[in-house]
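Usage

Read records sequentially. Each one opens with the input sequence:
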Amino acid sequence: MSYTPDTRQRIAKAQRFFARLESFSLECPACGDVYVIRQGASRKAGAKSDAWDSTTGRFTCTNKDCGRHYVLGILAWPIVAAPRVATATPEDQVPGPRQLAQLRKEGGGWWLPDEDGQRYPRPKETNLTTEDNRPEDEED
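and closes with the structure output:
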């Protein structure tokens, strides 16, 4: 089990600084739905939504059974001078299996087997279309 600090005392001593959220992925703290927020567009994994207001910093979960509202911000943790501190991705920034499944659903793409992996300095054929969207004059 990882160490979970009590942040209430630390936040009480915190100093305000300027920050603005523009593009991020977020799991609703209440229901667990995953959202992908990008500057100029916000959407719930797999569906369009009005979940994010960048002017007010307000996030609204669009799950009909949740509907919670949050104001989002950034908390900057200082890094102490010690070897290998903060050299790996923080645990809470790596999606777990459930979050990863929602993000993959959002992507709507294909997952190719390892034997089809790119092996060239300049990868070939990285943009593909589905058979339904393929121009009729093209054949394999």
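Summary fields computed downstream for this record:
- The longest helix spans residues 97-107.
- The mean pLDDT is 77.
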